[in-house]
Amino acid sequence: MAKTQQLIDGPINKALLSLAIPIVFGQLLQSAYQLTDAFWVGRLGANEVAAVSVSMPVTFLVIALGAGLAMAGATLTAQYMGARQYDKVNHVAGQTMLMVFITSVVLGFLGYLLSPYFLRLLGVEEAVYTNALSFMRISFVSVIFVFVYNMFQALMRGIGQVKVPLYIVLGTVLLNFVLDPLFIFGMGKFDGLGVSGAALATLVTQALAALTGFYILSKGKHGIHLKWRDLSPDWTYIKRAFFLGAPGSVELSARALGLITMSFLVASFGTVTIASYGVGSNILQLITIPGMGLAMAVSTLVGQNLGANRVDRAAKITVIGSVWSFVMLTVLGVFAYLLAPSVVKFFIPDNPAVVEQGAEFLKVMCLSWGFIGVQLSIMSAFRASGNMTNSMILSLLTQWVFQFPLAYILSKHTVLAEKGIWWSFTVTNVLVALVAVAWYARGSWKKTRIIEQDDIETLATSEEALIEVGERRA
Question: What is its main location (predicted)?
Fold first, then answer.
């Protein structure tokens, strides 16, 4: 494919931009689900914002348990595409989609049943509990569609096709923008569902996105063509994907558990702090999207270049992506520092206490955002090379060695109180970035091979034959 050839042989900056820009716009649009919810729910009050904030980490934990399979599928797809093994690309896509669907059904069902126990463990206040339970249960129902669509996005990204998901997200976000206020506040004789309406609007639009993505894969017009035989269980591949993806599941689960543990700590300071933390987390999610987009572009390029046995080029891509990400997120951090109160007011305009505390949170953490960009790019390169364990260890360091211990000590055992939680973000961002750079510089990640060596050798032999033919004709 011409697109694959460009990603393997073309200018790196151009290749990064061609992938990153659509991915960033797609991620911005996708985050609009949460931002639209946050905007309209913020009009209901601080208790409702707290209900959404406390529910999100729990939902993310359940999603994370099965997300390692998606990582494995996307990594293998990218490397097989780079090796030009197109039949294996289709097979990997089908098997991964099958595993993701089954996993999402099981985890969504368990999450729905266990939602009350999660909230009781978190010690949620009675004023928040009812709304949080309703929001969480609807979110667990939508897990199936979230899994399927995210897998579709990952597969498309793995083969370098990033525009189709962008168009789908654009359509569903516009629909969500209409459905959110309708479902939350109602219209005419329909009174609206409050916090539950926000979750229901997201469920409807995510379902449409998932069904559209699966339809596109079944038609085979964009690089992957799913057929029924690709959806028949291949236990050899499933075993391989499980062991490849297990560290990714542990990584994301550890991150989600870290967020839940942080929620325990934040909740101990009251509703205002919970709401401030929720607003700050939403802003952080939005502002790091450019770094995430670049990291995803790095992952695709590194995976395809390693599949084509272009190891040095893969290393260069990682460095360039990390530098770009650092600069971009640092610039955004400066703007966030200067405009902190206004940014927080966008989410909760009528609560001065939340605006003050949320702005303080934002100012403390925003100047370290560039270091998050470095982490994202390097961890994506590790995953794309099949070194899921490296990325897992960095995530464990982030949540359990640095951030939570720092947050607990600084907030509970110093005069900083809740400000200690805010400072834990800054210190952690810098420390983990330094560890990631040092680990990357060792170069051991370059030696990992997750696709069959004969696939790479076949590609190299074919290219050598073509060169020979060209030289003879010359």
Answer: membrane
Task: Compute how many other C-beta atoms are within 10 angstroms of the C-beta atom of residue 444.
Answer: 10
Q: Which residues pair with 187 in a beta bridge?
A: 190
Chain-centre distance of CA 148, in angstroms?
A: 14
279 is written with which tokens? 């607003």
CB atoms within 10 A of CB 333: 22
User: What CA–CA distance (Å, rounded) separates 76 from 69?
Assistant: 11
Question: What is the pTM assigned to this prediction?
Answer: 0.76
Query: Is the CB of residue 112 less than 8 Å from the CB of residue 142?
Result: no
Please state, in angstroms and as integers, the Cα–Cα distance from residue 272 to each residue in 46, 58, 267, following that order. Answer: 7, 20, 9
Cα(156)–Cα(175) distance, rounded to whole angstroms?
23
Instruction: Give the pLDDT score at 119.
Output: 81
Neighbours of 341 (CB within 10 A): 14
Task: Indicate the residue type of 58.
Answer: V
The pLDDT of residue 455 = 47
* Separation of alpha carbons 133 and 274, rounded Å: 16
Buried b (16+ CB within 10 A) or exposed e, 399-412: beebbbebbbebbe
Residue 262 phi, psi (nearest 5): -65, -35
* CA-closest candidate to residue 48, choices 59, 58, 37: 37
Q: Which residues pair with 190 in a beta bridge?
A: 187
Q: Looking at beta carbons, which pairs linking 174-180 to residues 24 or more positions away fall under 8 Å?
A: 175/204, 175/205, 175/208, 176/32, 176/33, 176/36, 176/201, 176/202, 176/204, 176/205, 177/32, 177/36, 179/204, 179/205, 180/36, 180/37, 180/40
Mapped onto helix, strand or coil, the DSSP state of residue 190 is strand
- Determine the Cα–Cα distance for residues 227 and 102; give it in Å rounded to an integer: 18
Residue 131: Cβ within 10 Å count: 26
Q: Count CB-CB contacts under 10 A for residue 473.
A: 6
Q: What are the mean pLDDT values of the chain's consecutive 10-residue runs (474 residues total)?
A: 63 86 82 73 75 75 72 80 80 85 87 84 76 86 87 83 87 86 79 80 89 89 81 82 80 77 85 86 84 89 86 92 94 93 84 89 92 94 89 89 93 91 94 95 82 48 37 38
Is 266:417 a contact under the CB 8 Å cutoff?
A: no
- Write the CB contacts of 309 (distance below 8 Å, at least 6 apart in sequence): 456, 459, 460
Task: Output the DSSP codes for 123-181.
Answer: T--HHHHHHHHHHHHHHHHTHHHHHHHHHHHHHHHHTT--HHHHHHHHHHHHHHHHHHH
Place of tokens 């893969």: 314
Distance (Å) of CA 214 to CA 165, 226, 351, 445: 11, 9, 43, 33
